[in-house]
Write a structure and sequence with these properties.
Layout lengths: L3 H11 L19 E3 L3 E2 L7 E7 L6 E10 L2 E6 L3 E2 L6 E3 L19 E11 L4 E12 L2 E4 L3 E2 L3 E2 L4 E2 L1 E8 L6 E3 L4 E8 L8 E6 L5 E3 L3 E2 L4 E10 L4 E8 L3 E2 L1 E2 L1 E6 L9 E10 L2 E2 L4 E6 L9 E5 L5 E7 L6 E8 L4 E2 L1 E8 L3 E10 L4 E10 L11 E7 L7 E7 L6 E8 L3 E7 L8 E2 L3 E3 L2 E11 L8 E11 L3 E3 L4 E8 L6 E7 L5 E7 L4 E6 L6 E6 L2 E3 L3
Parallel strand pairs: 12-22, 23-31, 41-48
Antiparallel strand pairs: 1-3, 2-3, 3-7, 4-5, 4-8, 6-7, 8-9, 10-14, 11-14, 13-19, 14-15, 14-18, 16-17, 16-20, 20-21, 24-25, 25-26, 25-29, 27-28, 27-30, 30-32, 33-34, 34-37, 35-36, 35-38, 38-39, 38-40, 41-42, 42-43, 42-46, 44-45, 44-47, 47-49
Length: 551
């Protein structure tokens, strides 16, 4: 830093700089078509200023703009030609090659301060005008901080710190920096996500070189620090701002822990026990957050405990109904302390089975549809959770699995199918898993009346090829014993020897005693049978076919 600095800052008192009010330009008896707007200093480089000029003469352009800088009646600098900017049109600025500087920097301006600007503009048709006091050259220092930093990293043992920085003024033109001494700087500590009322602001005064250290702050959580300074004087004008987020020295602990179970149902308590050590030595009196859920988010499913004199801790956690979580985690809960351990734990959510529709077809097959989902979260998704269909003869005991499926990932829908049955009691059942609790659909009794065709007889036997075969039989239903089932539609089927597919031959009805007589043509050796197709209350019939030899 040049020694001229002290001279620079005291020069203001020795030099009287008149700050003249901006007055309208003096007009001749006939107004000039050339106009000049206010001249303004560029804040980022106060050795430059700009002004707008225009002409109202048709077909004319502004061809030259010049300026003089005055202190009272004394001209301290002349700019013979301002350069027109590419945008906006008609805006003229002191060229950077002619930036105004202090005399000690090779310029003509005698001292820091504010000066009047006179501007003259001329157009291509000879029109010209001069605006006295078109603006003020703000030839003052621009306040600026150097980098701010803490005097030391905070730690668990020492949580106090001071922020240090340096306040300088940037000189116009040269860009040299000048210490701003005896200035009061504000330092503010802001905790993350804290309310504004928790912000703390403390002030400190800069020394001769502009260096300044804040008063001592305590740091109990992550925080950012700001330094601010504002001045509006004959020497300096503007605001300076600096930001810093200091790091800390963490205290690392080793956490070991285990849970007393690997699965906990909603409402059950899980006990996690563990120990905190540092380089093999117990760490007493430190906070440990133990949470359900492997993200350690510290929600309502967690508890903060304090280690005892041997560094040991115990936490009792209870899963909340309706929430599906996985795992547990224990982690240091103090700002300066780090440590983490986790373990497996299944915390299934409560489940339910809804909209169950069960059907028993005439062929003895059971079809059950419904939905399986999280009781408290309709949007919950799962990896095709398995459900099963159970059967019991009496609806109370002896339940056994007869079918399994998986609920749809997106719609929770399910469909279960069984083989043939003669009826009984059914329920949809989700077995307890790591994802969901056990749940049941309603118990439903599915039943139909059994039917059969007895005494099936095809004659004559043997029979000549092309002759008529007469097939008789009796249709019965099980209604407190086997009884004739009268006036029901029946059909005659034939299965040729060596084939697998039955062919429909004839249709008819049973008489009042359940008897049926149906006829068909003999073409090949084969079996004949009469069948009843059932209805909404009856099963399909069973029967024993009769084989006829064709000759």
């Amino acid at each position: 830093m040049p020694k001229r600095t002290l001279t620079l800052l005291t020069a203001v008192a020795a030099l009287s700089v008149s700050v003249l009010p901006i007055a309208p330009a003096a007009f001749a008896e006939e107004a000039s078509p050339v106009g000049i707007g206010p001249a303004g200093t560029l804040d980022t480089e106060r050795g430059l200023f700009a002004v707008t000029a225009w002409t109202d003469t048709a077909g004319a352009d502004i061809v030259s703009v010049s300026a003089k800088v005055r202190s009272g009646q004394t001209v301290v600098a002349e700019v013979p030609s301002l350069t027109e900017l590419s945008w906006p049109k008609g805006r003229f600025q002191v060229p950077e090659s002619a930036v105004l500087k202090l005399a000690e920097d090779g310029g003509t301006v005698p001292a820091i301060g504010r000066y009047s600007i006179d501007v003259t503009a001329t157009d291509s048709k000879g029109g010209t005008t001069t605006r006295q006091d078109a603006g003020v050259l703000d030839f003052t220092l621009r306040p600026q901080f150097t980098e701010m930093h803490p005097d030391a990293q905070t730690s668990r043992e020492d949580r106090s710190l001071r922020m240090t920085t340096r306040l300088v003024g940037v000189q116009p033109g040269s860009g040299d920096t000048v210490p701003l001494a005896s200035r009061e700087v504000s330092f503010t500590r802001k905790y993350d996500n804290a309310k504004p009322e928790r912000d703390t602001t403390l002030n400190a005064v800069t020394g001769e070189t502009g260096e300044v250290a804040s008063p001592e702050f305590g740091m109990e959580n992550w925080a950012s620090f700001e330094a601010r300074y504002t001045e509006d004087s004959e020497v300096a004008r503007g605001s300076a701002y600096e930001y810093e987020r200091p790091s800390i020295t963490p205290y690392k602990v080793e956490l070991t822990a285990q849970a007393d179970k690997t699965r906990a149902l909603p409402g059950e308590t899980v006990t996690v026990t563990g120990r905190a050590t540092h380089e093999g030595v117990a760490v007493p009196g430190t906070s440990v957050r133990v949470s359900l859920g492997n993200d350690g988010r510290g929600t309502a499913w967690g508890e903060t405990v304090t280690t005892d004199t041997d560094g040991r801790f115990t936490a009792k956690l209870t899963g909340t109904p309706g929430i599906r979580l996985s795992g547990w985690v224990a982690e240091a809960a103090e700002f300066y302390v780090t440590g983490h351990v986790s373990g497996p734990l299944a915390l299934p959510a409560e489940s339910r089975i809804d909209k169950v529709v069960s059907k028993l077809a005439a062929d003895g097959k059971v079809t059950v549809t419904g939905t399986f989902r999280n009781t408290y979260d309709r949007e919950d998704r799962f990896d095709y959770e398995p459900v099963q269909l159970d059967f019991s003869a009496d609806g109370r005991t002896g339940w056994k699995k007869v079918a399994v499926t998986k609920a749809s990932y997106y719609y929770q829908a399910m469909t279960l199918n069984t083989g043939t049955t003669t009826g009984g009691y059914y329920r949809v059942h989700h077995v307890l898993s790591d994802n969901f609790t056990e749940s049941f659909g309603p118990v439903v009794r599915l039943s139909r009346t059994q039917t059969r065709v007895v005494s099936v007889n095809a004659s004559p036997e043997p029979v000549a090829k092309g002759a008529t075969v007469t097939v008789t039989g009796v249709l019965q239903q099980s209604a407190g014993g086997w009884k004739a089932y009268a006036s029901q539609p029946v059909k005659l089927y034939f299965l040729a020897k060596g084939y697998k597919t039955w062919s429909l031959v004839a249709s008819g009805k049973t008489d009042s005693k359940g008897r049926a007589t149906l006829k068909g043509k003999a073409g090949k050796d084969g079996s004949w049978v009469i069948r009843y197709a059932g209805d909404t209350a009856h099963f399909n019939s069973t029967a024993v076919a009769d084989f006829v030899d064709v000759r």
